[in-house]
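User: I'm preparing a small set of examples for a lab meeting where we compare how different chains pack in three dimensions. I only have the primary sequence for this one, and I'd like the structure in token form so I can line it up with the others. Please keep the answer compact; I'll paste it straight into my notes.
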Amino acid sequence: MINDKKILVLGMARSGESVAKLLAGKNEIIVTDKNNQDEKLIEELNKLNVKFIRSDEGTELLDKTFDLVIKNPGIEPSHPCILKAKSLNIEVVNEMEVAYHYLPENTKIIGITGSNGKTTTTTIIYNLLKLSGYNVYLGGNIGIPLSEIVKEVKENSILVLEISDHQLYNLKDFKTDISILTNLCPTHLDFHGTYENYKNVKKKIFNHHTNNDLAIINYQNKDSLDLVKDIKSNIVYFNNDINYYDNLGIYLNKELIIKLEDIKIVGSHNYENILASLMVLKEFKIDKDIIKNYLSNFNGVEHRIEVVDSKSKIKFYNDSKATNPTSTLTALKTMGENVHLILGGMERSQDFHELDKEINKVKCIYGIGSVTERVKEYAESMGIKCYSCKTLELAMQKIKENALDNEIVLLSPASASWDQYDKFETRGEEFKKLVEKLFN
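Assistant: Understood. Below is the structure token output for the 440-residue chain.
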């Protein structure tokens, strides 16, 4: 518990709001953000004696009288206010670390991280535990801050948390009972500087583990295997010769759990996500009939290779969640020929040549975002026609001119959205609205 502290919350968003409310009443709290906030929210915080001050960097607000800085996970370690906090020896944490200390001691925590597949894996685990009658809560990077739900968590509950590298970065005491590392590939290097730094942050999902805690690792992902060589967890593997999938189905301990024909979502990436999920659910002895019924109706996660309905004969897929090239490569593997690919977003030194193995499926590329010109350079190097559209709306208008019946339009940007959108979900929603506006 945190009491009688002077705290600066750096960055509002949902996590900043939630942690401020959690700590209100027993602490002096100032929330700062570079953007103006909704007046109703400011009034609500004021009633809790939480002060909001708009500031570009927050450095002028911070001095040695503060005890703690709670930063939004997306704020980079090199942010001037974070550097100033360190120079003043003020501890910097995030809302998940704070909220962890408010959980009942016997809460069982399942944490899911990885470069790709986190949200799908988290969703499957949560829903199947809930369907099986467990008292389970969902939170984390999936959009629900832990500090928002922590007071609801009852004794002997299960907490299923998607945890991003940005959230892991400032964790200190936080500990899971079961940790899943879905896979690793180079991403978010603008935040971490190097791939080694990124991997070492991901390793924090196993912090404070002993042999009584479970680590679930992708055996086919070499970087994951290398990373966990010295962790103290009880390690179990998926994608090995015991827990695997083939053309027929998904197996645990070489026993067929569900046939692929009974699973609604398709693609090797989804089968890996399901397999990782079932490795957790095996610990809770979930009934196979519940698993089969759920997976036969599960449509997948919104914004991840999501089918977008249209009255036209063109096929539309919203894969806005693809914020790195590895994720876009996965999407392309599931596609047929004649793809119109919307590519680009925020500049993060991403290597588009990671798409080379599947780029022959792409008929035309439409560059958007701050990396538009690099997208065009990549397309030209691969001999693919490209339009420098800058915005999603202009890309969709150009696609309306070019796309033919039975061809595929895929929004899979291989880039973060923050240069033009507050989050990838907003980008995906705009794509779906443009399909409705232009093609229905």
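A couple of notes for your slides: The two ends are 54 Å apart (CA to CA). The longest helix spans residues 424-439.

User: Perfect, thanks.
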